[in-house]
## 1
Amino acid sequence: MVISEGYYGLLRGWQHRRQNEVNLSIVPDLHGKVVLVTGANGGIGKVAAQILARQGAKVFMAYRSKPKAKEAMAEIRKTDADADLEFLEYDASSLKAVHAAGRGFLGHDLPLDIVLLNAGAIMSEAKASKDGVEWMFAINHLAHFALIMTVMPALEKAARDNGDVRITSTSSARFAMHSDAVSLHIDDATSKEVQEKDISGKYMTPYGFVNSAPDGKLASDFMLAKQL
């Protein structure tokens, strides 16, 4: 199993319609592969789903809104009519919903060769999630970890059958901006202040709350690597 922090220059080029600059030859043939992409309704997630499906993969597009995901699928099929796409309901702000999404995937009885942990959020004000933890920490860290642990049987099946499983987390150059002022504060993310929604901007930085998307995703990568 390979876990990587994906830098998205290839996908950004495609997203901004510089398709003549995108070298798809670096993406292998993916016929017979099953892929799960979170946050797949737009942006990097939709572009990734399109490229992976174009290379022959069966792609599960995970997103909380079925109408928006279906809209994204229709847009992809305008240029890739044979794209093999499936919707998977996925609400990263709720661990209950994340586990349900994972079990929903397992219900298809398929191996899972590639996971792209793309869903993420960043906001200027902190708030509590449905589980009582800081909202961005829940979406950018806990949801990824919970999803992978839930679909582990499908990942293990793919590893046994094919010997090659990939788990990739998208991020940005933001991860290189760490300093004492911009770092992870795990205890704060589950504090009583968060649960009572009384944060008062206490942990804000110029880049948003301390548990921002790249920070949380990096933490997910570290913890997944340790667990696996």
Note: The beta strands are 2-6, 34-38, 58-63, 84-89, 114-117, 166-170, 204-205, 208-209.
## 2
Amino acid sequence: MSGASRASLAAGVRPAPCPRDRGAVTVEAATALGAVVLVLAAALSAVTAVLGQLHCTDAAREAARLVARGESERAREAVDRIAPSGARLTVLVSGDTAQVEVTADPPGGFLPGIHLRADAYAVLEPTAADAYPPSTGQAAAG
């Protein structure tokens, strides 16, 4: 660096920018903003998937309780009301127990390959056990 250049920098005078550098900060900011939006969308999708899983768990628990009481139709209504839209209910009655499975796709559909699933088990009440054939099991999907 020459003595004149040092003197001009010390005086607060900046050299003229290179014409090729114009807009470089704008491009970097646009790229960073796009990355921030992508990370935010992924985080929001993950949060909605976790909430959907919690809803499936609640729906499976409620459906198992209703099936144990002999109210299979109300179990389907509960799953439709509690679980994410498009959730599927599977009920398997074997002996004096009921196994319920609720499956769904995550809300929003932004997470391909992720499937929500929750299981619940319940012992049939004596009055409900008469509604299901003994030891043959009953499976239903909805």
Note: Residues 24-68 form the longest helix (45 residues).
## 3
Amino acid sequence: MVSGCGICGANLEDIDHIFRRCPVAVTLWNSLLHSDHLPEFYSLPIKAWLLANLSSSRTFATADPHWDLFFGSILWGLWPHRNDMIFNPHLVLRDSVLQRASRVRHACLAALAPAHGTLHQDRRLPREQVVWCRPKLVGIS
């Protein structure tokens, strides 16, 4: 059983490595964050790092008002991306992590829009309101 990173060969493949230290993740984060924020971004303990980025919309990214959503979407995209790189190396990856994350972020914002009283002008998203109805209990006493 191999315990190291299947992408870069690092000895330890833990959550911190997968989402923050692996060259795939480092390249991604460095492309998104202002260089002034990088030292703190990389030095926080993993739990504080996750909480800081998921609980605030403007902790590290100065240009994105929904950084918390985008950050979570990036983490969500990094996992299948790296699994494809390791377990399906012959597969041509159709979308980048950022493309996937952007789509997830957009879907989250669209889903949150009715709750926040804002409307998105994207007509490609369905506008139908769905209401859940309790199923009828038949034959249960």
Note: The chain has one domain: 15-116.
